UniProtKB/TrEMBL annotation:
Listed CDD domains: SirA_YedF_YeeD
PROSITE patterns according to UniProt: UPF0033
Record domain UPF0033: where: 7-31
InterPro entries reported for this sequence: TusA-like (IPR001455), TusA-like_sf (IPR036868)
Name the UniProt record assigns to this protein: TusA-related sulfurtransferase
Organism per entry: Paenibacillus taihuensis
GO molecular function: transferase activity
Gene3D superfamilies: TusA-like domain
Family: Belongs to the sulfur carrier protein TusA family.
Superkingdom classification of source: Bacteria
Regions annotated as coiled coil: none
Keyword entries, A-Z: Transferase
């Protein structure tokens, strides 16, 4: 999946992946996609809930060798 920006949040524990995601998505234009890489298992639920509560769209997520990847489209 194509993304406009990649955020490396690997090695960060909650709530830092969300804090960094919020900051990074603020730098994007509406409709652009942020790709987030995280190793915190809680990030899956946290980012899904965060996207829903902020009106952004979680397009997809995947796990690859212990790294969780998320694609979030800015509202």
């Amino acid at each position: 999946m194509n993304s406009d920006k990649i955020l490396d949040a690997k090695g960060l524990a909650c709530p830092m992946p969300i804090v960094r995601t919020k900051k990074s998505i603020a730098e994007l234009e509406s409709g652009q996609v942020l790709e987030v890489h995280a190793t915190d298992k809680g990030a899956k639920n946290d980012l899904a809930a965060w996207a829903k509560s902020t009106g952004n769209e979680l397009l997809s997520h995947a796990e690859e060798n212990g790294v969780y990847k998320f694609w979030i489209k800015k509202a």
